[in-house]
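Data deposition worksheet. Section B asks for the primary sequence of the deposited chain exactly as it was used as input, without tags or linkers unless they were present during the calculation. Section C holds the resulting structure in token form. Section D is free text for depositor observations; keep each observation to a single sentence. Incomplete worksheets are returned to the depositor.
Section A, Depositor: J.P.
Section B:
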Amino acid sequence: MDDAAIALDGATGWDWLDEGRAADLFFAGDAGVGRAALEALGGFDVVVQPVTGRQKQLLVADMDSTMITVECIDELADYAGIKAQIAEVTEAAMRGELDFGEALDARVALLKGLGADAIDRCLAERVRLMSGARTLVQTMKARGATSILVSGGFTRFAGPVGEQIGFDRVIANELLIENGALTGMVAKPIVDSSTKEATLLGAMAELGLEAAATLAVGDGANDLAMIRRAGLGVAYHAKPVVAAAAGARIDRNDLTALLYAQGIARGEWVAQ
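Section C:
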């Protein structure tokens, strides 16, 4: 812990969670002021929250560029030779500059005729888990939490990814396939921002949880609604519009930072 951080106005003390890597700094003053002061120091991720209720009982997570390292539709487009064209639209949609549903329909239409076998090839060759993804989910599950993967991407990717990481439930869009090829359409209704928000709220009601007991994480504009509703809403290596609006953001570390945020030290993780 930097001496400057310890001396910040309103700080009342601190403890290491993991020496040299993660620490709790306690504030008696305004949380927003504390967050701004710490972020101004730079060099580390900052999550400001109440001391009580840190351990969450529900995790709702985005998939592409959050639980995995890629945007599946962009990588799938590479097999059709149009990755640059589709990736440009994906980036604009994730920045909140385009309607998500319309942008998804437009991109999928460009994939019409692509052999369905490209999905399995893409899954095997391109899709990789984000560092810390399985450790985050498995550690929370070991502590009794429920985890839901809700993606604006596709079931053919989200199903295997969710199983590999250990999510309890997976929700995603279905690519329509006929005669071994993509039709250029997705099943309706589309899984979008409202679906993600509804998934979080529905799971809270089902499990009898208050918002304070929930964690939502994502990187794109279509994750903002659920991030804002969660007790701990996290922008993970996110687009600027998301990072600016989220209550917490992780810009430097991997997903295990969300275990530190819950007060869970490395020695208590379910290692993978």
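Section D:
The mean pLDDT is 93.
The longest strand covers residues 146-154.
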